[in-house]
Design a protein that fits this description.
The complex is a heterotrimer of chains A (about 350), B (about 475) and C (about 160). Chain A is α+β, with helices and mostly antiparallel strands. Helix content of chain A is about 30%, strand content about 25%. In chain A, helix 2 packs across helix 3 (about 140-150) and helix 4 crosses helix 5. Chain A is elongated and about 95 Å long. Chain A starts with a strand and ends with a helix. Chain B is α+β, with helices and mostly antiparallel strands and about 475 residues long. Chain B has 13 helices and 15 strands. Chain B has helices at about 5-20, 55-60, 95-100, 150-155, 170-175, 200-205, 250-260, 290-300, 310-315, 355-365, 395-415, 415-425, 445-455; strands spanning about 75-85, 90-95, 105-110, 135, 140-145, 160-165, 190-200, 210-215, 230-235, 240-245, 270, 300-305, 320-330, 335-345, 370-380. In chain B, the strands form 3 sheets. A 7-stranded mixed sheet of chain B has the order 3-5-1-12-9-10-11, sandwiched between helices. In chain B, helix 7 crosses helix 8 (about 290-300). Chain B starts with 6 loop residues before the first helix and ends in an 18-residue tail after the last helix. Chain C has 2 domains: about 1-75, Beta-grasp domain (Ubiquitin-like (UB roll), Roll), CATH 3.10.20.30; about 85-160, Orthogonal Bundle (DNA polymerase, domain 1), CATH 1.10.150. Chain C has helices at about 25-30, 85-95, 105-115, 120-130, 140-155; strands spanning about 1-10, 10-15, 50, 55-60, 70-75. Chain C has a 5-stranded mixed sheet, with helices on both faces. In chain C, helix 2 packs across helix 5. The longest helix of chain C is centred in the last third of the chain and has 16 residues, at about 140-155. The chains are: A alpha+beta (about 350), B alpha+beta (about 475), C alpha+beta (about 160). Chains A and B meet through strand 1, helix 1, strand 9, strand 10 and helix 4 of A and strand 7, strand 8, helix 7, strand 11 and helix 9 of B.
C-alpha cells in the first residue's frame, strides 16, 4: 500500500573559502563601439558562470549581455582566479569583474565629462549611453566615448581589479571568528509516496525556496536548483560506492552505481527568495552548492511522515526502508502483547 | 638463454601500429546556421535579472562545443594509467619492459620518473604515480603513451607490478583509534581536527526539558560528471608546455605542474576548455603531469581521458560522515544547547578534507540560534578512494543529521515541524556558531515561502492529511 | 581492417576500421564527428546516442561494421545552414543544457521520440529520456523544451521543417 508523506528541511551554506584567501582578478576592456571584453581566470564547468559574469559587466557598463564577450581559463592570457569551487564565482569573481568594469567606466566618465560640461561624478550609464544624472537628454553613446578615449585622450578604457572576501581567522581552541563573508539560506519540502510492502520511495514533488541574493539570471538559478535536487535525490535514495572486504570498489560503473534518470525526478517548483546582499555584485551571493544540501533531509523526513520510520543512514534504499517498517511493526506487536499481558 | 626476437614480424607490426598515427580524415563540413539571431533577453539593458540564454547554449545544442576528448593535434598519442587494484601495499618492483616492446607503444613512465612526486591542495600527501606505497586501489602506478587508446589499454596488462600487501584499514572508526599504525606514518591517522565551542553545553542540557540523542551516517558517492577527467599536453621548442585540461582551478593547476615537473610557472600554460561537469571533482591535478611528462618524453602531443571506472576509483568522492548529535530543548521547542561529534572518512589522501572538515563543523549546528554549542570533528585516513571536494563540502551530510533530528524532536514534543524551525531559525543580525554577526539572513522567509507554495498549512501531502502534519 | 560505407547525415562516407571498432569511435575518430560523446563506452549513459535507420541507438554498443550500408543521423545532421532544428532552438531558449556534454545524446533521443510520437505526454517524454544520464540539469528544462516543440508543431504543422 502506498503511503503519502511530506518532509521539510532548511539549510545554510557559506560562499567562498573557509577563512583562507581566495581572490579572483578580472580585466575589462571596452571596445571602440561600446561593446566589451572580460578576461577572467575562472572556468565554465556547466553552471553558467561565463553568462552571468557577462551580465554583471554589462550591468555596470549600461550595455546588454550580448555586448560582453568573455575570455576565460587560460593562465597565459587571463588573470588569476581561485577557481570554480565553493560557490564563489558569482560573488568573488563577480565582484572582481564588476570592479574592473567600474574602473574602465571611470576612464570613460573622465573623457565624457568635459565634453558634456560636467564633472565625472555627475555621470551615469544607461542603455548604451553615458548620460548626466537627472538630465539624460545630455548624453553620448558609449562607443563614441570609448573611441574618443583611445583616439583623442590616448587613454584606452581598460580596468583591472581583484576581490577577496573579508574574513577573520578562527580561534584555535574555540573556533570563533568570521570564516566567510556571506551565507545563503534555503528550504526544500518533499512529497513522497512510500510503498509499505516493498519500501520503495517515489519522490513526487519538491518545492524549493532558495536565497541567492539578487538572482543575476533567474533561469540559470532554476537550472542549478533543479540539478542540485537531482543530486540530492540520488544521495537520499540510490547512490552508493560499495567496497569489498579488500577495499576495492564493487560498482565502479554506471550499471551498478544508480543515479537519477528522468524517471526518478519529482516535479520541481523553484522560488527565489527576495534578498539582497550589499557586499555582493548588485546584491548577489551564489547558488551552486546550496541546491543539493537540504534535499536528502527533506526526503527522509517525508519518509518519516509517511510510514513513521526514521532511517538514519543514507542511502534510504528500498531494502533499508522496508527493513525499518518491518522492525517498527514487530516492535508495535511486542508492545501490544506486553500491554495485553 | 637469449630469446630469439622475430625481427621481421615485429617490424611489420610496428609499421602497422605507426600507420595508425596518420591524421584522421578531414572533418566534414558541418552545416551551421551562421546568421546570428540574438535572443531578446540577451539584448536587454539593464542586464541583471534577465533570463538571458547562455553564451554556450548554441554550440552545445549543435554538438560543436569542443571538450578535451574532442580535440585532436597532429601526431597525438593516447595515454592510459595502470591502476593498483590493491588497497594497501608496498610496491616491490615495476617491470615495464614487455609493455615498452609492444608495437605502437611509444613511452612508459612510472612514479620514479616524476621529478617531484607529491602534491595536494593542503597536505601534499598524494603522489602523481605511486612510487613506494599504494594507499588505495585506484592509485596510479604507471602510464603508457601509444598510437591508439586500444594499444595503450592493452599495454597496461603488460606492465608487471609486484606488491607486498599491507592490511588495509577500511573503517574510519577503527582508524580513529590512535593504536592503529598510521597509514601515512609518521603522520597520524587523524589528520584533521576542529572544535567549535560556545557557551556552556553541560549547563544547557541540565536546564533542558528534554535531551535528544541521534546518530546518523552517510555514504560515499561520486560526482559522476558526464565528461570524464581529461587533459592534453604539448611542448614547444622553448621548453614551454601547454596543457588543455578539465581542471576547475587553473591557477592551482599551473602551480602543481610547476612543482611536480620542476618547471618554472612562466613555462607552463594551462587552458581549461568548457568542462562537462565538475561538482568539485576536477579541482586538483590527475592526468595533467602524466601527459606532460609523456609528451616531453615522446616529443608528441599526448592526451589522457579517464575511463568511467577510473572516474569512480581514481578521482575524488564525497566524504562519508558518522554524525552524533545531542540536543537539549525547552518544552516549547527552543533549542538550548547542542553537542556534535563528526567523524569524516578521509580516504587515502587529504585532498580537500581540511576544507570539508572545517565547513562540516561550522555548519553542523544548522541555521538555528544556539547559544551553547560544542562541535568536534575529526578526519581520518582509510585505504579507500580519496575523499575530496564534492558539492557541499560536508553540508549535505550534516543537514541530513540536523534536520532529521529536528523532525524527531518536533514529533516527540507534539510541535509542527515548520513551527519548530521558525521558532529557532537564525535572523538578521543573529550570531553564528562562530559568533559572526550574520547579514542578509532569510531562513524564515525561505521556510514560509516554501510552505506557502507547498500548501503546508492546508495539510497538503501529509500522511494523515491533518492541518499541522504532526502526530502525537 | 574492415571497410565500412554508410550514409552519415545525408553524405556517403567510407572508412577503414579495425573490426572491433564501435560506431561511436568511427564517427568520432575516423569521421571527426565529435558531437556524439563517450561517457561510459558500455551503453549506460546515452551520451553517444545517434539514429540508425530512424531508430535511436547507443552508438558505443553498435559495431561500425553493423552500420555498414545504413543511414546514420548524428547531432551534426540536425541543423541546416539556414536554421537550427526546433529542438536545438527551444533547448537554447529554455536553458535546457548546462555543461552540454549529455546534450547531443538527449537531443537525438528527443528527436527519435517526436518522430514517432509528435504529441507525447510528460511520462512518455521522461521514458524516452530514461537512457540519457544528465548530472547538471535534473532533466526539468529538457522536458519543458520538448513539450514546447511539440506544442509549436501542434500550432503550426507546416513548421515541421527538418526531417
Amino acid at each position: 500500500m502506498k503511503k503519502r508523506g511530506r518532509g521539510i528541511a532548511c539549510m545554510w551554506y557559506p560562499i567562498g573559502f573557509t577563512v583562507a584567501a581566495n581572490p579572483s582578478a578580472a580585466v575589462v576592456k571596452i571596445n571602440e563601439d561600446g561593446t566589451a571584453t572580460l578576461l577572467t581566470g575562472t572556468v565554465e564547468t556547466g553552471q553558467g558562470s561565463l553568462t552571468i559574469l557577462a551580465q554583471i559587466v554589462a550591468q555596470e557598463l549600461g550595455i546588454a549581455t550580448d555586448d560582453v564577450h568573455v575570455v576565460s581559463a587560460d593562465t597565459d592570457t587571463t588573470p588569476m582566479d581561485t577557481g570554480a569551487i565553493a560557490s564563489r564565482t558569482t560573488y568573488v569573481t563577480g565582484n572582481a569583474a564588476r570592479l574592473a568594469a567600474e574602473k574602465a567606466k571611470q576612464i570613460l566618465f573622465e573623457v565624457a565629462a568635459p565634453v558634456l560640461g560636467v564633472k565625472p561624478s555627475q555621470l551615469e550609464v544607461a542603455d548604451h549611453k553615458i548620460q548626466v544624472v537627472g538630465f539624460p537628454q545630455r548624453n553620448m553613446h558609449i562607443g563614441d566615448v570609448s573611441d574618443r578615449a583611445r583616439g583623442v585622450n590616448g587613454q584606452p578604457p581598460i580596468g583591472s581589479a581583484s576581490y577577496n572576501p573579508a574574513t577573520v581567522a578562527l580561534d584555535a581552541e574555540t573556533g570563533q571568528g568570521k570564516p566567510f563573508a556571506t551565507y545563503v539560506y534555503a528550504t526544500q519540502i518533499a512529497e513522497v509516496d512510500v510503498d509499505d510492502e516493498t519500501g520503495e520511495v517515489d519522490v513526487l514533488r519538491i518545492v524549493a525556496s532558495h536565497d541567492c541574493g539578487t538572482p543575476i539570471n533567474p533561469m540559470l538559478v532554476e537550472g542549478q536548483v533543479e540539478g542540485g535536487i537531482s543530486m540530492g535525490v540520488g544521495f537520499a535514495l540510490e547512490e552508493e560506492i560499495m567496497f569489498d572486504e579488500h577495499g576495492r570498489q564493487r560498482n565502479p560503473n554506471l550499471t551498478n552505481y544508480i543515479m537519477p534518470t528522468s524517471l526518478d525526478m519529482p516535479k520541481i517548483e523553484v522560488d527565489i527568495v527576495d534578498s539582497y546582499d550589499p557586499t555582493g555584485p548588485f546584491g548577489a551571493k551564489g547558488v551552486g552548492e546550496p541546491t543539493c544540501v537540504s534535499t536528502a533531509a527533506a526526503i527522509l523526513n517525508a519518509i518519516h511522515d509517511a510510514v513513521g520510520v526514521r532511517v538514519t543512514s543514507l542511502p534510504a534504499t528500498a531494502e533499508k526502508v522496508h527493513a525499518a517498517i518491518k522492525a517498527k511493526r514487530a516492535q508495535e506487536a511486542r508492545q501490544i502483547t506486553a500491554g495485553a499481558a | 638463454m637469449v630469446e630469439k626476437k622475430p625481427a621481421v614480424i615485429e617490424k611489420e607490426a610496428q609499421k602497422d601500429a605507426l600507420e595508425l598515427l596518420r591524421a584522421p580524415a578531414p572533418a566534414p563540413l558541418v552545416p551551421l546556421p551562421i546568421e546570428v539571431l540574438v535572443p531578446e533577453a540577451r539584448q536587454q539593458t539593464p542586464a541583471v535579472r534577465q533570463r538571458a540564454t547562455r553564451s554556450d547554449a548554441r554550440t552545445h545544442g549543435l554538438g560543436q562545443t569542443k571538450y578535451i576528448d574532442d580535440m585532436y593535434l597532429p601526431g597525438m598519442l593516447f595515454a592510459k594509467i595502470k591502476r593498483a587494484g590493491v588497497a594497501s601495499a608496498r610496491i616491490v618492483s615495476v617491470d615495464t619492459k614487455e609493455a615498452e616492446a609492444m608495437p605502437g607503444v611509444v613511452a612508459v613512465i612510472t612514479g620514479r620518473d616524476i621529478p617531484c612526486n607529491t602534491f595536494g591542495p593542503s597536505l601534499k600527501d598524494q603522489p602523481v604515480l605511486a612510487d613506494e606505497r599504494v594507499f588505495h586501489a585506484g592509485d596510479g602506478v604507471a602510464a603508457v603513451a601509444a598510437v591508439t587508446e586500444q594499444i595503450a589499454t592493452e599495454a597496461l596488462e603488460k606492465i608487471h607490478v609486484e606488491y607486498e600487501p599491507i592490511e588495509p584499514v577500511l573503517d574510519p572508526l577503527a582508524s580513529l583509534k590512535l593504536e592503529t599504525p598510521g597509514l601515512h606514518a609518521p603522520s597520524p591517522n587523524i589528520y584533521g581536527h576542529k572544535v567549535i565551542k560556545k557557551g556552556d553545553v553541560a549547563k544547557a542540557f541540565a536546564e533542558s526539558y528534554r535531551v535528544f540523542e541521534g546518530s546518523f551516517r552517510t555514504q560515499m558517492v561520486e560526482h559522476v560528471p558526464l565528461e570524464p577527467h581529461s587533459s592534453l599536453a604539448t611542448w614547444d621548442p622553448n621548453g614551454r608546455v601547454t596543457i588543455y585540461s578539465t581542471l576547475g582551478r587553473i591557477t592551482l593547476g599551473r602551480a602543481d605542474i610547476s612543482r611536480t615537473l620542476g618547471v618554472p610557472m612562466s613555462r607552463v600554460r594551462i587552458i581549461a576548455t568548457i568542462v562537462g561537469g565538475n561538482f568539485g571533482g576536477k579541482n586538483e591535478i590527475t592526468t595533467e603531469p602524466v601527459v606532460a611528462l609523456l609528451s616531453k618524453k615522446t616529443g608528441r602531443p599526448v592526451k589522457c581521458t579517464f575511463t568511467r571506472p577510473e572516474e569512480f576509483m581514481s578521482s575524488t568522492t564525497r566524504h562519508p560522515l558518522i554524525m552524533d548529535y545531542k540536543t537539549g530543548v525547552t518544552k516549547e521547542g527552543r533549542i538550548l544547547g547542542r553537542q556534535i561529534r563528526l567523524v569524516l572518512d578521509g580516504g587515502a589522501y587529504c585532498s580537500w578534507s581540511e576544507t570539508t572538515l572545517g565547513k562540516a563543523c561550522i555548519l553542523s549546528a544548522g541555521p538555528y540560534k544556539i547559544d551553547n554549542l560544542y562541535a568536534e570533528a575529526f578526519v581520518v585516513y582509510t585505504n579507500k578512494t580519496m575523499t575530496g571536494a564534492m558539492r557541499g563540502f560536508g553540508a549535505p551530510q550534516v543537514c541530513f543529521a540536523y534536520e532529521s533530528q529536528m523532525d524527531d524532536m518536533a514529533k516527540a514534543l507534539g510541535i509542527d515541524p515548520l513551527e519548530m524551525r521558525l521558532m529557532n531559525a537564525l535572523e538578521e543580525g543573529s550570531l553564528s556558531p562562530t559568533s559572526q554577526k550574520l547579514h542578509s539572513v532569510v531562513v524564515k522567509e525561505s521556510l514560509l515561502q516554501a510552505a506557502e507554495r507547498f500548501g503546508w498549512k492546508n495539510g497538503n501531502g501529509s500522511a494523515n492529511g491533518s492541518a499541522n502534519g504532526s502526530r502525537t | 581492417m574492415a571497410e565500412v560505407t554508410m550514409t552519415v547525415n545525408g553524405e556517403r562516407r567510407t572508412a577503414h576500421v579495425a573490426p572491433e571498432t564501435t560506431l561511436l569511435r568511427m564517427l568520432r575518430d575516423e569521421l571527426q564527428l565529435t558531437g556524439s560523446k563517450l561517457g561510459c563506452d558500455v551503453g549506460d549513459c546515452g551520451a553517444c546516442t545517434v539514429m540508425v535507420d530512424g531508430k535511436s541507438v547507443n552508438s558505443c554498443l553498435m559495431l561500425a561494421v553493423q552500420a555498414d550500408g545504413r543511414e546514420v543521423l548524428t547531432i551534426e545532421g540536425l541543423a541546416t545552414k539556414e536554421q537550427l532544428h526546433p529542438l536545438q532552438q527551444l533547448f537554447e531558449e529554455k536553458g535546457s543544457l548546462q555543461c552540454g556534454f549529455c546534450g547531443p545524446g538527449v537531443l537525438m533521443s528527443a528527436k527519435a521520440l517526436l518522430d514517432e510520437n509528435p504529441d507525447p505526454t510528460e511520462p512518455e517524454i521522461r521514458d524516452a529520456l530514461a537512457g540519457n544520464l544528465c548530472r547538471c540539469t535534473g532533466y526539468t528544462k529538457m522536458i519543458e523544451a520538448i513539450q514546447a516543440v511539440a506544442q509549436l508543431r501542434h500550432e503550426r504543422p507546416a513548421a515541421k521543417s527538418v526531417a
